């Protein structure tokens, strides 16, 4: 019996609960690769604890972040068609996953067709999100992308002020918005100087609404 069995039984989504229960528990240290872009894919990963970053990169090592996921989500389903992995997945903190092999996934789908339906709906939702991000990259300038990212971060209240829950380096922001670190640095510096944001320990606080254009 795995120490993670109680956590799996508490998963509210019955589909994810069934998938996680059929997999092998894997532990990934912070910074380790769970999935490598272009590698063969033979499994998906249900996240039980931690946080991962999904990204693509080119031959020069430049990265673009596609999304972030935490419990309870899954990654790696795109390789179900037998093609190489379309993106990399990296653990941003110590992460625990249930790795579900394709054989077990297909067996689960045969026994419960709702799994396939739920995966299809999730794939559609993720595709809509990716399409929206690509639209913003194509039609919005860098300032607009940075401002949008800051607006969409999750904020938590600490001592009467609202700070972003997530800590982001300027390079991580640049990877998310598809820009250079220098450009992001200049924009953040200007926003701070203008009294629109405050920054502390890689966290952000919005002081007042930033202008639509810079």
Write up this protein.
The protein is α+β, with helices and mostly antiparallel strands and 214 residues long. It has 2 domains: 5-138, Jelly Rolls, CATH 2.60.120.10; 141-206, Winged helix-like DNA-binding domain superfamily/Winged helix DNA-binding domain (Arc Repressor Mutant, subunit A). Helices cover 38% and strands 27% of the residues. It is built from 7 helices and 12 strands. It has helices at 5-9, 14-21, 102-111, 114-139, 142-152, 170-177, 181-193; strands spanning 24-28, 33-35, 43-49, 52-57, 63-69, 74-75, 88-91, 95-101, 155-158, 161-164, 197-200, 203-206. The strands form 4 sheets. Strands 1-8-3-6 form a 4-stranded antiparallel β-sheet. Strands 2-7-4-5 form a 4-stranded antiparallel β-sheet. The chain has a two-stranded antiparallel ribbon with strand order 9-10. A hairpin with a 5-residue loop joins strand 4 and strand 5 (63-69). The longest helix is centred in the middle third of the chain and has 26 residues, at 114-139.
């Amino acid at each position: 019996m795995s120490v993670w069995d109680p956590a799996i039984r508490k998963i509210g989504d019955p589909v994810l609960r069934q998938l996680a229960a059929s997999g092998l528990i894997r532990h990934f240290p912070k910074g380790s690769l769970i999935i490598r872009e272009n590698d063969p894919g033979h499994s998906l990963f249900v996240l039980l604890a931690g946080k991962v970053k999904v990204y693509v990169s080119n031959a020069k090592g430049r990265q673009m972040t596609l999304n972030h996921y935490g419990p309870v989500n899954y990654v790696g389903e795109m390789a179900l068609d037998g093609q190489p992995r379309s993106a990399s997945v990296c653990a941003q903190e110590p992460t625990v996953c249930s790795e579900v092999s394709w054989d077990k996934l297909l067996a689960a789908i045969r026994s419960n067709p709702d799994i396939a339906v739920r995966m299809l709906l999730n794939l559609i939702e993720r595709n809509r999100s990716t399409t929206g991000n690509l639209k913003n990259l194509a039609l919005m300038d860098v300032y607009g992308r940075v401002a949008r990212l800051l607006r969409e971060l999750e904020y938590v209240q600490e001592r009467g002020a609202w700070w972003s829950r997530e800590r982001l380096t300027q390079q991580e922001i640049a990877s998310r918005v598809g820009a250079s670190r220098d450009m992001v640095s200049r924009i953040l510096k200007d926003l701070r100087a203008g009294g629109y944001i405050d920054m502390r320990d890689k966290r952000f606080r919005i002081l007042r609404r930033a202008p639509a254009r810079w």
